[in-house]
Write the structure tokens for this entry.
Amino acid sequence: MPYPPPAYLATTSPSPLIPDRSLYTRIHDASREHIYTYTIPARSGHAFKLPATCILRISTPSGPQVADLNLWSLSNPLEHFWASRTRQLHASHVTVGDRLWSCLPYLRPMVTIIADSLQDIKADEHGARVHDLLGTRCDPYVALMLSGGDDQEGASFDYHCHSNLTRAVLPFGLTERDVHDVLNLFQVTGLDDGGRYFMKKSPAKAGDYIEFFAEIDCLVALSACPGGDLSQWGFGKGKEMESVCRELKVDVFKIEESEKEQVLEGWKAPEAPRYLGMHELKGKESDAMKRVLEQAN
């Protein structure tokens, strides 16, 4: 019996869910100027600005390593990446042509994936795929909860992805509460017959990468997961875990000015949907909602 149709399909053409292939091919193929690079040491995090119309490459220079990604609007951190809506709009695992969407009331693409060296990897015998939106970041709270609160080594372990992302964004005025559900890059995951989440070793090799085109000005935070390549699992603790952890590399490029106008012909910065209702709010509540929606647009 065939599957039911996908629940979220656009009713217009061109579709916001399926970017203009010729445009993004031009963007990918355009001449680039390298403007930023950073190597994120194993088990640490880093945050940086990504200007609109620039290209972000995240790579595994030394071999397989999972990366946890967060995004915010640079001008308004209330607008951040929305993993669950992205999963509904595209798929549980993303690749070229998919976009990372922001939360309500903004709901616009923040970045579009334009290259992925792992895009030809198909679902394996267990249905597992790469670049995961099913799960989220590791954190010290769940580690303690699962161990019954008696894991003193886990209690003192400060390099879970949640912690790495928290430290990374502090210089930008954000806090732990701003860290949100992630895109797990280079991570292979799936659901078993009982619908339970599982993980497998990352298939990334030295030099593998994924590239994003920035649709808006973004703040990006990235964690080199303490689970490393996930060939072992123990919430980051122990020498065995350290042995499978590697660095990540970040590179940012801008399109050469001599080509930019031609390359970006037809592109425009995305806008939030212009919802004009007030959720049935009246009076002062309605005025407050209007201000929020005006800021979104």
Observations:
- The mean pLDDT is 92.
- The longest strand covers residues 32-40.
- Helices lie at 21-29, 83-89, 140-146, 152-155, 161-169, 239-242, 257-263, 283-296.
